[in-house]
Design a protein that fits this description.
By secondary structure, the chain is of the alpha/beta class. It has helices at about 85-95, 105-120, 140-150, 180-195, 215-230, 240-250, 255-260, 280-290, 295-300, 310-315, 335-350, 355-370, 405-410, 435-450, and strands at about 10-15, 20, 25-30, 35-40, 50-55, 60, 65, 120-130, 155-160, 200-210, 230-235, 270-275, 290-295, 320, 385-390, 415-420, 425, 430. This is 8-oxoguanine deaminase.
Length: about 450
C-alpha cells in the first residue's frame, strides 16, 4: 500500500514591520510553495501553523522579477576599452574580447549573476544570452543547471545573432550562428526545459538579439516557434537613436514597423529598453499588449535616453524592470534599479506622477506581466511564495518614517531574507549553499585571465 504524501508545512511570517500587501498587517501564511492566507493586523491565521517566523524587523515585498540581463557580462565590468562610450562603440569594443568566453567562465558568470540578483531580493531571474562562440553551444543548459542548483526561479531566453560585420551587422563572425543552427537549438532547449505551467521554476523564451544583428527570416521563424511552444519573445528595440537610424537605412522603416512586419506585435512579446518611440508607436505597442523592460541604470550609463514608462503603461503595455548587462550597469542589483527607475522617472515627469510604489510595482507585478506570469509578482493567496525581506538596521535608514518608501528612497541594496517557492534561499544576508568568497575568487581569476580586467 502506498504511503500518503506528506502534508505541506504551514509557515506564518508574522507581524512584519511593513508589507506590500493590503490586509496583511499580521503577516501571511505560506503552505508548500504558495501563499495561502493574508493575516489582518492583530489577528491569527484561520488554521493552525507548523512554524512561525517573527518578521517584526522586516519590510516584506514580493520577490523582485528581473526581465533583462546578460550574465556573461559580469566578466567585463568597468572594462577600460568600453567605459565612457555610447551603445554602438561600446558594443564594438567589447565584441573584440567576448569571443574569448569559455564554458567554465560562463558557468561562473551565471552563478555569480544569479547570486547577486538573489541577494538584492530578486526571486525570478531573466537572462538574455545571445553570445555563442565555438564551445558555448550548451549555454542555455548551463544557465538552467545553475539556476536549479541555487534555487532561484529562472527565465532563460535563447538569444541569437546571425548577421556579422560582413553581413552589415555589428558582431564579429566568431560570435554569430546561422539561422538553421539557431532555430534547431531553440527547438531543442524549448523541448528540454520550457515549463509553461503556473509555478514553473524554469521557462525559456526566444530572443534574437536586435534588428541589426539577425535576419528577418529568423525573426519570422522565432515567432512561429514561440506559437507552437507557447513561449515568450524578447529582443532589444528602440534603445538608441542610432538604432532607429540603422533600421531606416537597412529596412526603410522604423523599429516598431519592423516589429509588426516580422509578426512580433503581440502580447507574447516584451522588449528591452523601449526608449525612442513616438506617440503613435507607444499607442500601437500598448494596443498590442507588447511589454517593455525599463533598464534605468544601463540607460543612464550609456546615455541612451529615458523610457516613456508612464505613457507606455497608460497605453496598455506592461512595464517591468531589468538590471541589463553587468558591463552597462556594472552590477546585478535589482533593488538598486528600483531606486534608479524612480529617480529617472522624476526627471521625466512631475514628482507626484511617479511614487516609490510605482517603481516597486514595475519590478514585481509589471515584470511578471512582461513574462506572461500571473502566479508571481504580488503577495496574495494562490500566488507563489516568492518574497524579499529587508531590514532597516543600517545608518542609511535611521530616521525613516515610512518603511516601504525607505527601501527605495534611502537606497536598500541587500535583502536579509529571500524566499523562492516557499523555501528560504537567503538567510541573514547569506545565500544558501553558495560560498561567496570562493565564487568571487574564481570569477575574478577567470575575468583577469580571459579579458585582462583590472
Amino acid at each position: 500500500m502506498m504511503e500518503a504524501s506528506a502534508t505541506p508545512r504551514r509557515l506564518w511570517i508574522r507581524d512584519p514591520l511593513a508589507i506590500l500587501a493590503e490586509g496583511a498587517g499580521g503577516g501571511i501564511v505560506v503552505e508548500g510553495t504558495r501563499i495561502v492566507e493574508r493575516v489582518a493586523a492583530g489577528a491569527r491565521p484561520v488554521a493552525p501553523v507548523d512554524e512561525t517566523f517573527d518578521a517584526g524587523r522586516h519590510v516584506v515585498i514580493p520577490g523582485l522579477v528581473n526581465t533583462h540581463h546578460h550574465f556573461f557580462q559580469t566578466l567585463t565590468r568597468a572594462h577600460p576599452i568600453a567605459i565612457n562610450k555610447p551603445l554602438f562603440p561600446w558594443l564594438k569594443a567589447l565584441s573584440t574580447i567576448w569571443p574569448r568566453l569559455t564554458p567554465e567562465a560562463f558557468r561562473l558568470a551565471s552563478r555569480l549573476a544569479y547570486t547577486e540578483l538573489l541577494l538584492s531580493g530578486c526571486t525570478t531571474a531573466g537572462d538574455h544570452h545571445y553570445l555563442f562562440p565555438k564551445g558555448l553551444e550548451a549555454s542555455v543548459d548551463i544557465q538552467v543547471e545553475e539556476a536549479r542548483a541555487i534555487g532561484i526561479r529562472a527565465f532563460v531566453t535563447r538569444g541569437s545573432m546571425s548577421l556579422s560585420e560582413k553581413d552589415g551587422g555589428l558582431p564579429p563572425e566568431t560570435l554569430v550562428q546561422d539561422d538553421d543552427t539557431i532555430l534547431a537549438d531553440s527547438e531543442r532547449v524549448l523541448s528540454l526545459f520550457h515549463d509553461p505551467k503556473p509555478g514553473a521554476m524554469v521557462q525559456i523564451g526566444l530572443a534574437p538579439c536586435s534588428p541589426f544583428n539577425v535576419t528577418k527570416r529568423l525573426m519570422h521563424e522565432s515567432a512561429r516557434l514561440a506559437e507552437r511552444h507557447d513561449c515568450r519573445l524578447h529582443t532589444h528595440l528602440g534603445e538608441t537613436l542610432d538604432e532607429n537610424a540603422y533600421c531606416l537605412e537597412m529596412y526603410g522603416q522604423r523599429p516598431v514597423d519592423y516589429l509588426e512586419e516580422v509578426g512580433w506585435m503581440s502580447a507574447r512579446t516584451w522588449l528591452a529598453h523601449g526608449i525612442h518611440f513616438n506617440d503613435d508607436e507607444v499607442r500601437r505597442l500598448g494596443a498590442a499588449g507588447v511589454g517593455v523592460c525599463h533598464c534605468p541604470t544601463s540607460n543612464m550609463v550609456l546615455a541612451s535616453g529615458r523610457c516613456r514608462t508612464c505613457e507606455l503603461e497608460a497605453a496598455g503595455s506592461p512595464v517591468g524592470l531589468g538590471v541589463d548587462g553587468s558591463a552597462s550597469n556594472d552590477n546585478s542589483n535589482l533593488i538598486e534599479s528600483v531606486r534608479h527607475a524612480l529617480m529617472l522617472a522624476r526627471l521625466s515627469y512631475r514628482a507626484e506622477d511617479v511614487s516609490h510604489l510605482d517603481a516597486l510595482r514595475w519590478a514585481t507585478e509589471g515584470s511578471a506581466r512582461c513574462l506572461g506570469r500571473n502566479d508571481i509578482g504580488r503577495i496574495e493567496p494562490g500566488r507563489e511564495a516568492d518574497l524579499a525581506l529587508f531590514t532597516l538596521d543600517e545608518l542609511r535608514f535611521s530616521g525613516a518614517h515610512d518603511p516601504l518608501a525607505a527601501l527605495v528612497l534611502c537606497g536598500a541594496h541587500r535583502a536579509d531574507r529571500v524566499m523562492v517557492a516557499g523555501s528560504w534561499r537567503v538567510i541573514d544576508g547569506a545565500p544558501i549553499g553558495v560560498d561567496t568568497g570562493d565564487l568571487r575568487e574564481a570569477h575574478t581569476r577567470l575575468a583577469r585571465e580571459l579579458f585582462g580586467t583590472l
